[in-house]
Amino acid sequence: MSPQFHSYPAPAKLNLLLHIVGKRADGYHLLETVFRFIDYSDTVELAVRDDGQIVLLNPIDGVPPEQDLTVRAARLLQQASGCSLGATIRLTKRIPMGGGLGGGSSDAATVLLALNRLWQTNFSREKLMELGLSLGADLPVFIFGKNALATGIGEKLNEIKLKPAWYVVIHPGVHVPTAKIFQNFAGRVLTEEGTISIMRILETTQQRRNELQQVVSEMYPAVNEVLSELKKYGSPLMTGSGACVFLECQSEEEADKVYQAMSVKYKGFVAKGLNSHPLLDIE
């Protein structure tokens, strides 16, 4: 009998700003960033198994299944809960890898949220966020499920209300390794702005900054080129540690127009900003 798969979305995120506000003794940088979910997703399909095995049907080229974040997330939930069930995982990737869109973290978060339900392990969101943090700093926000102002290494989250917006997202065609960017960050450490100041900064796109953008632009000219091209239409920003660059637009029509002009030369997409994660109400 063929397994019964359940399908779940794993949305991308954008960092609407990113400030570096300190460094921990273990080398991790302390951040202040705003996460926004967008309507552009990978699809995670899951089928429950009785034999306790975790099987990834379509491993990503160059990533051994045991290292894949979705497999690691499923094993982590198994170990933490003592659950004897297993899962078959099938991934349909749309979110570019190494783009600063959080695709791998989002996939893993969706696995934790969905298997918590399918296996009936009944962990709280807080507990799942704790598990997620051990896999990656930007994983908890996908379990938190709401657009958020994040501090710490990205794991201290406060819900933030954001205006409706559309985004033109362009991939410069380079893969940017996060660790390398943070190692090369030699910029000054800023003071934390705090919620009120952040809300003021978010009112216009001109004031927003990603402190890693300069490092990436210098190391990867392709990123700098896309930023320069998008500047013709507004105030673009790089998301996360790159490589993707985005422009916030007021309407779908405006975003489509900009994307049409950019798509002659670059790959990318247009996506609507979401108010919350599509699995916010999963229980």
UniProtKB/TrEMBL annotation:
UniProtKB keywords: ATP-binding, Isoprene biosynthesis, Kinase, Nucleotide-binding, Transferase
Catalytic activity line of the entry: 4-CDP-2-C-methyl-D-erythritol + ATP = 4-CDP-2-C-methyl-D-erythritol 2-phosphate + ADP + H(+)
Gene Ontology MF terms in the entry: 4-(cytidine 5'-diphospho)-2-C-methyl-D-erythritol kinase activity; ATP binding
GHMP kinase N-terminal domain location: 69-146
Positions contributing to ATP binding: 96-106
Pathway(s) where this gene product acts: Isoprenoid biosynthesis; isopentenyl diphosphate biosynthesis via DXP pathway; isopentenyl diphosphate from 1-deoxy-D-xylulose 5-phosphate: step 3/6
HAMAP family xref list: IspE
Similarity section: Belongs to the GHMP kinase family. IspE subfamily.
Function: Catalyzes the phosphorylation of the position 2 hydroxy group of 4-diphosphocytidyl-2C-methyl-D-erythritol.
NCBIfam families: ispE (TIGR00154)
Protein name: 4-diphosphocytidyl-2-C-methyl-D-erythritol kinase
Organism: Aquitalea palustris
Gene: ispE
